[in-house]
Amino acid sequence: MVWWGINGSIVFCVYLIGCYQCHFKYNKNNGKKKKIRRMSVDKRNYSEGFCFLLSYRLYKQFYINCGLMEQLTVENVQLLPAKNDDHGGVVIELEEHMDSDVFLTLLKTSLSQWTTQGKKGVWIKIPILLVNLVEPAVKEGFCYHHAESDYVMLVKWIPETTSTIPANASHRVGVGAVVLNHKREMLVVQEKNGPLRGKGIWKVPTGIVDVGEDICTGAIREVKEETGIDTEFVEVLAFRQWHKSFFEKSDLFFVCMMRPLSFEIQIQEVEIEAAKWMPVEEVAAQPFAQKESLLRYITDLCIAKVERDYSGFSPHPVTSGVIYLNKRDLN
Amino acid sequence: MVWWGINGSIVFCVYLIGCYQCHFKYNKNNGKKKKIRRMSVDKRNYSEGFCFLLSYRLYKQFYINCGLMEQLTVENVQLLPAKNDDHGGVVIELEEHMDSDVFLTLLKTSLSQWTTQGKKGVWIKIPILLVNLVEPAVKEGFCYHHAESDYVMLVKWIPETTSTIPANASHRVGVGAVVLNHKREMLVVQEKNGPLRGKGIWKVPTGIVDVGEDICTGAIREVKEETGIDTEFVEVLAFRQWHKSFFEKSDLFFVCMMRPLSFEIQIQEVEIEAAKWMPVEEVAAQPFAQKESLLRYITDLCIAKVERDYSGFSPHPVTSGVIYLNKRDLN
């Protein structure tokens, strides 16, 4: 405290000298008297502006050092860079390094202004490199909305009314690929990792759809990655919804029918223990493919598709993405 | 620095006195000589343990104050509370307030131990109330994995091998409900908010599926909330996948056929401007329901369902959730 006190006093003296210099120059220029605190940079010449900014920064630092930042009421304080969104709110995307205390002051001032303007949701995207700004934002009443590896998005609802902040992503999307050759053999794999590891269970190639990837593209990619087989997407035979799959999130798993375009297997060493073409009935006969299990449904659907013209959902482009529907019944 | 220096010296003196007392008592008890630093709490009596812990805490505080935490190498340092996961990693769920410096020390020591043990992914769940621990975790090489309003989950992959950390949730799931009465009239609404606000467009009730909610349950809930109509879920007529729907996330929208169980409309004032029963052909004739638009497909599917026995996907329970499939074609 002694150290801050000494430094604070020096800083304040420099500030007073700065003010005096401005005041002196100002009076010398036009002879009129006016409150120093009302000075605005854009109305003075460069040297005055510089002098004002220097003294303002030192003055602010003095207040920060004394823990009295709350009382700072100097005019012309900057706001955080924000864009309006389509729902009456604002979005702040921080990119450059900033001192936590400076950020807190700017945030308080900005929030005060947005409240006056009747803004609703305030979003702050903080890159991981600026992690020092997360704590001050939370202390100003922000909550997390979502996070990706390199940033966290925080949000605060200003009005007294019920929040209409949109929900975070809730589902992970997986695909299972049914690839059948002309001998009624299904492309199956044994996994090297996960709960089925070492159990000798033959199952269809599966995987997680990448961010921004279509279900049909994801299915083609996964089969190629795991087995080296090229395929063409036919249709979605069924899908399963499952909750609390990982970290309280849900899971949508799409069973996809694929047509093989190549037949020579080359397994991916990291994830796959073994891969082969196996008669559908043998896949279904495994003890693991019991009543009501997903693998049982997968083999049943596959047999229905080849023997009884089962109609799944096939993809069609629409203005907003891709729609999957029963094309045979629609036409 | 002077302040820290004085305090540090006092702390260190107290530490030395503590050590001496331990040493003295130890020698008095069995007469053997042994290095003080090798003392282990579980091998001594309570008073020695307490004395050691007190001196250790003061000694640690001294190092923290001097900014020399990195050099702290005292034995018996506590580890963070962690549970093993099913994939060779560990999960830390923090619940109690902790000083950032103490956390950083515990984290470094724990990471060192887990590295020796060959652990893979390390997960830290930090509640929003412990936001002060986010910055130290990031500085130790952790990235964000995901966040919900009240916590952030961080993760670090220890081995040199490619990370197999599972992907974050990538999709938001929405439902649109096609509710048709016996007069071929469709239940439609006009929205009070969002992009369709004030445009006079009649559309089916829509909404976002809650976390952990089944698609069929979500559709029943949304119709009831928006219009007061009770319904029974029939089947999924189609679904649409759309990317970059919000914050780079994707969107899966399920078009659901519903059977009405009541007919008197009571609109939800907050979200809905108006609601009514409208002939299907009139809904389809709106300029908004143009070629390749989602609303056009919705009305086409509805007409196909009532006129040509269109078969969608109906839900069936499986051991892992609910599977939606074409029941007519499977049997």
From TrEMBL, chains A, B:
The record, for Pfam families, names:
NUDIX, Nudix_hydro
Keywords attached to this entry: Hydrolase, Membrane, Metal-binding, Transmembrane, Transmembrane helix
Q: Give a yes or no for keyword Cytoplasm in this entry.
A: no
Extract the GO molecular function terms from the UniProt entry. Answer: ADP-ribose diphosphatase activity; metal ion binding; NAD binding; NADH pyrophosphatase activity
Where in the numbering of this chain does the Nudix hydrolase domain appear? 170-302
Q: Which residues cross the membrane?
A: 6-26
Recorded hits in InterPro entries, A to Z, give:
NUDIX_hydrolase-like_dom_sf, Nudix_hydrolase6-like, NUDIX_hydrolase_CS, NUDIX_hydrolase_dom, Pre-Nudix
Q: Which family does it belong to?
A: Belongs to the Nudix hydrolase family.
Query: This chain belongs to which protein, by name?
Result: Nudix hydrolase domain-containing protein
